[in-house]
Amino acid sequence: MEILSVENLRVKLENREVLRRVNFSLKDGEKVFITGPNGAGKTTFLETLMGFVPFEGKISFKGNELKSEDDFSVLRGRMGYVFQNPDDQLFAPTVEEELAFAPLVKGLKREQVKEIVERTLKEFEIEHLREKPTYKLSGGEKRIVSVACVVTMDPEVILLDEPTTGLDRNKWEKLVEFFERTGSSLIIVTHDTKLMKRLGWKRLVMENGELRE
Amino acid sequence: MDTATEGEKVETPLNGEGLLSRLDPRVKIVLFLVLAWTVALAGNLLQVFAFLPLALLFYATAYRKTATILKLLLFADFFLLFVVLTQLFLGSPYEGVLIFFKSTVIVLFSLLLLTTSSVFDLLHALHHLKVPNKLLQITFFFYRYLFTVKDQLQLAEKSAKSRGFIPKTSIQTYKTYAYFMGNLLLKSYFKSENVYKALISRGFKGYFPVFRHFELGKLDVIFALFTIIYWGVAVWRFYL
After folding, report:
1. Which of B200, B203, B211 lies at the smallest CB-CB distance from A106?
2. Chain centroid to CA B156
C-alpha cells in the first residue's frame, strides 16, 4: 500500500527553482536512500514533505492530499523527521525529557510514556545518558538521541537527513541495526556509500532539483 | 560513551549539594519569597539579624561549598558597597549598613534555597506556582540556548585565532568582533527557525510537557513547618 506520494512537486526559494517536478512514492514499510551532490535539494525535499516549505504540486499521505498547515500538523504526528544538524533538533533540558516530549504532547498516559522512554533508552543503549543535558552530549551522542527522540513518536514514516555523519563504528552499527529492524518506512538522505552498500535498498539520486532512480 | 557525571548535571552553583537540593523546589521558592519579603521590610539591624541564624543553618547543609557561596556572596557585596558609600556621603550611614545586611541575608537565602535546584526544576516549580507559561517558556529557551550562543562565539573566536587573529586596539579587531556579532545574530535567527521546525515536527502545541514531576515528601513538610515556625517566632519577637 502506498503511504506517501508526491506528484509534480515544485519548490521555488529566493527566485531559484530548488525542486523541479519531483515525482516520488513510498510504500508502507519501504526503505529508500536519496543521494546526490550538495545543494541538489535533498534537505529541501524532506522539509517540503514535512510542510515547512511552500510548494506547488501534490503531496498525499495514505491517499489524502495535504494542502493546509492543519493537514501537515496532523501528518507530523505520524511522520518523524531527523534533522541534518542534531543541535537544531534537541531542545529539552535532559535526554529523558527529550525522549518523553512527543509521547507527552500526544497525550499518552504517564505510565505509557515511562514505558516508551525506558524501551527507547534501552534500544539505543543510552540509559547512561538519561539525565545528561542535551547540550552537553558529544556529536555522536546527539545524533543517536536525535534519532531516538523521533522513534518515541512511533511514526509510520521517518525522514532522516544524513543520520550517520560523524558516528564512530559502534554507534554507526547500532543505528544501522535499527534501520534494518524498524517497521517504519524510511527515507534516508545520505552520502554514506558504506551504509547504502550494506543495506542495499532502492537508491534515488537528486540532482539539480530533479529526482531519478 | 561518556556517562553523565554529577558535575554535568549542575546548572546552578549549589545544585545537587546537601539536604536543600533534595527538597521540593516549590516549597523552597515559597519559603524564599516569605523570608526575603520579611527581611526586606526590616526597619533595623536587629530585625535583619533575627534571620541570620536561619540562613546559617541552611548554609550548614551546604558547608562543603563554602568557597562557592563566599565567592558569590562577595560578588554581590561588592556592588552593595557602592550603596553603603553613597549612603555615607548622603549622611545616613546607618541606612547604608542596613541595606547592606538586608541584601546580604536575602542573597544568602536565594543562594541556599534557589540555587540548590536546577534552573529547569525552578521553572517547573514556577509553573506549579501559576507563573504564566509563556514567560516560563521564553526563560527556558533563553537559558537552554545561552550555551549554544556561547559555544558559537567561542568557535568563531577559535576560527579567527587559528588564522592568526590577535585581538588588539585596532580597526581590524573591532571589525572582526563586529563580524562575530553579526554572524551570531544571523546564526541565532536561523537556529531559532530550525528549533521551531523541530518543535512542530514533534507535535508542539504551545506548551512544554514535563516527564518528571515533583512529589511533596515528609522532608519537605518538616522543612516547611520548621521554617514557618522560625519565621513566626522571629516576626512575633522582633517585628511586632
Report:
1. B203
2. 28
Say if residue B73 is in the same domain as residue B159: no
pLDDT tens for A37-59 read 998 999 999 999 998 899 999 99
Same domain, B152 and B78: no
Q: Give strand pairing partners of A56.
A: A10
Of A108, A94, A146, the residue nearest A124 (C-alpha): A146
Mean pLDDT along residues B113-135: 91
- Are A7 and A62 spatial neighbours (Cβ–Cβ below 8 Å)? no
Q: Which three cell numbers stand for residue B184?
A: 551570531
**Set of chain A residues whose Cβ sits within 8 Å of the Cβ of B1:** 126, 128-129, 138, 141
Q: Is the same domain home to B195 and B101?
A: no
Q: Strands A79-82 and A64-65, how do they pair?
A: unpaired
Q: Is residue B9 part of a domain?
A: no
| 3-state DSSP assignment of residue B176 | helix
| Residues spanned by the domain of B79 | 19-125+213-238
pTM equals 0.76
Tell me, yes or no, whether B159 lies in a domain.
Answer: yes
* Chain-centre distance for alpha carbon B4: 22
Mind giving me the DSSP string for A76-97? TTTEEEE-SSHHHH--SSBHHH
Cα A46 from Cα A83, distance rounded (Å): 9
* Per-residue cell: A207: 540532482
| Nearest residue of A to residue B5, measured between CA atoms | A132
Checking if the pLDDT of B2 tops 50, the result is no
Paired with A135 in beta bridges are: none
A136 in contact with B, Cβ within 8 Å: yes
Helices (H) and strands (E) in chain A, counts: 8, 10
Its ipTM equals: 0.71
Identify the burial level of B91 via C-beta atoms within 10 angstroms of its C-beta, where 0-12 means exposed, 13-18 middle and 19 or more buried. Answer: exposed
Within 10 angstroms of residue A212's Cβ, the number of other Cβ atoms is 10
**Chain CA centroid to CA B238, Å:** 30
User: Could you tell me if B120 and B222 lie in one domain?
Assistant: yes
Same domain, B147 and B109: no
Q: What is the mean pLDDT of residues B106-134?
A: 92
How confident is the model over B140-189, as pLDDT tens digits? 888 888 888 888 888 888 777 777 778 888 888 888 888 889 888 888 88
Closest CA to B117 of B223, B224, B33, B25: B25
Shortest distance between the Cα of A68 and any Cα of chain B, in A, equals: 14
